[in-house]
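Hey all, quick one. A colleague (J.T.) asked me to put the iron/sulfur cluster job into the tracker so the inputs and the structure tokens live in one place instead of scattered across chat threads. No bug as far as I know, just bookkeeping. Sequence used:
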Amino acid sequence: MIDARTFVRYNNHMNFRIDPDPITKITQMGDVTLYEPAGDQPHSEKASVAAGRFQSRSLADCISHVSTPTGKKPILKTMLTTACERNCFYCPFRAGRAKIKRSTISPDDLARAFDTLARSGQVDGLFLSSGIIKGSVTTQDKIIDTIEIVRKTYHYKGYIHLKIMPGAEYDQLFRAMQIADRVSVNLEAPNQMRLDALAPKKDFDAELLRMLHMAEQIRRDHPGQKLASTVTQFVVGAVGDTDVELLSLTSGLYRQLKLARAYYSSFNPVTETPLEGVAPTDPRREFRLYQSSFLLRDYNWEVEDLPFQPDSNLPLDVDPKRAYADAHLRHNPVEVNTADRDQLMRLPNVGPKSAEALLRARRHSRITDLAQLRKLGIRAPEAAAPYLLLDGKQPPVQMSLL
Ligand code: SF4
């Protein structure tokens, strides 16, 4: 039996290749999950990474500052392997693409590296994805094995977000939901037709949507058990997908399958892929989709309430809530003293918390001026003034404030 140092010297002498240590491996993999948001404020995640440094070689770029249900945390975002047997048209890791250095790390090594980083305080949380090798089931097993080691051997109790491979099995999804805080089933596209143009080896219903149904079934099968929330991600704008398609599906997923969040990722062409000649998506579209999806999820809006244009997309230059208010509330303002919660949340700058504050305040006194709204936490109430009444009167607003 030789010790590790002797083994290294022996290998050096024999001119054998020595595998780098696990942290070096992760660093070499770089910011491979740059386009995969992991937390509750996906925009701030992306902004923290300098554009164009994809597959950097810095450990710092593998760590994203992510908003989690328990606060903002430095999360290690990485993959088990950047090799993949599938050929999604937009993906830098697609099979056969030569312009990428493939790296693979074992579950043991990844768990050990994560433990080292977590103990030294450099990270507090893990987002783990993977290319697919030897099928989805084998790959999913490796992802789960990694987290079992992180949880059981290294006793890590913090935030873990896992990717679910297309076509994973019920037991795998159940186990993933037991050991993680959040699982992602990425639909990529709003329907099979769009998916065919984006990722022709994926089956929308059987491999992707079924996973989200299965997650909801697991929640029903195991009531009272603490299980991970489910999220999904769409690649936006590469293949003619429309905002109506994306938001109609999102709305259904929120209501029927208890999806926690939809992520929208503006398409960016990758060289040496079939979509390299397609123009990048305007990042404002991603932002408008996020705004709209929050209206659907948190403000009880219907898809039909959103201000779609004739081309089935949202206008890029105006906040969807403001566009709604201009079209519907300017001539039919909301009486703040009598409107219900949903009506109050139609007003610009009034969200779930400020609507609650308004309802509470109304029980004690009538609301008659904008200063009261400001005191209740409504930011810049002048923005909502053209669309509301206070005790039957439209509040006076200085034009310069609008
Ligand atoms: S399965 Fe995932 S990693 Fe593989 S090519 Fe498709 S998107 Fe890329």
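Adding what we noticed when we looked at it: The radius of gyration is 24 Å. The chain has two domains: 21-305, 329-401.
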